[in-house]
Amino acid sequence: MIARVIVTPKPVVNDPQGLTVKQGLASLGFREVTDVRVGKYIEVNLEGSSEHEARRRVEEMCRQLLANHVIEDFQFDIEPERKRR
Amino acid sequence: MKFGVVVFPGTWSDRDCGWVIDQVLGQELVYLWHKDSDLKGCDCVILPGGFAYGDYLRTGAIARFAPIMEKVGEFADRGGLVWGICNGFQVLCEAGLLPGALIRNASLEFRCEWTHLLVERTDLAFTGQCTERDVLRVPIAHGEGSYFADPATLSGMEQRGQVVFRYCDAGGRVVPGANPNGSLHNIAGIVNSRGNVLGMMPHPERCAEAELGGTDGLKLFRSVAENAFKVLVS
């Protein structure tokens, strides 16, 4: 199975990277952009019998290491592993 | 007084701290490798600056799992003195030994420059040699030193007097222009509620000899050394 984890700065946390990217987009003419937040994307390949169990384990991984609960939120999807290309 | 300086892969200020401890102050020094599992009887553990484990994932996120950190946590729980400087502060926050977190500087720049710090606590083992509302001139060198804690945590810390150092101007005024990184409340250094674990972004070990442009940092090292003497005689 593969877990696709997205970690983002909490809304209350100042995100200077997001602000700078927003300004960059505005200078390119994308004036419709109202906000940008820059986070992290993490892929975790894991073995497991059920999606339910994998979900529980990935939640723990996020809490213990992948995200810092003081400054970051996380979300993830679990997919059956794709065949190797 | 025996100081232990922790060395992780990627630590870079360990020898600077060690120099101040044994060459400038003549105190006992031992380096503690990250894989060590005992603190070799030291009275104060320093987590120095650098990029422990390359700061992979987040600053300090991987270092907190090092074998030595379990012992540092137990030592802190027993009331032992733990002092995190720069990256060491980030490690202490990730390890949960101090509240809050350190995020990217508001300017997005790595800032390497002199700052002024207003000392708000002089009753601590780390600041006993400072005078009331002392202003110290100490350099910073970091890209991720912007202190953040949620509003409830921050107000609790302020009420308990956990903010030890605040960025200020040369006259001791805590003003936005003196804040080099966007830290909330101009926070440069904090202690835990018990007062035995200190974290600070500025580098006192880099201003402990006149040749380096200042000696204000020596006050903090001397405070710890003198404090131990007081403990021994009391």
Please provide a written account of the structure.
The complex is a heterodimer of chains A (85) and B (234). Chain A has helices spanning 16-27, 51-66; strands at residues 2-9, 40-45, 72-79. With 85 residues, chain A is α+β, with helices and mostly antiparallel strands. Chain A has one domain (2-79): Phosphoribosylformylglycinamidine synthase subunit PurS (Mth169, Chain: A). Chain A has a 3-stranded antiparallel β-sheet with strand order 2-1-3, with helices on one face. The longest helix of chain A is centred in the C-terminal third of the chain and has 16 residues, at 51-66. Chain A is elongated. Chain B is α/β, with parallel strands linked by helices and 234 residues long. Chain B has one domain: 3-Layer(aba) Sandwich (Rossmann fold), CATH 3.40.50.880. Helices cover 25% and strands 25% of the residues of chain B. Chain B has 5 helices and 11 strands; from the N terminus they run E-H-E-E-H-E-H-E-E-E-E-H-E-E-E-H. Chain B is globular and about 45 Å long. At the A-B interface, helix 1 of A face loops of B.
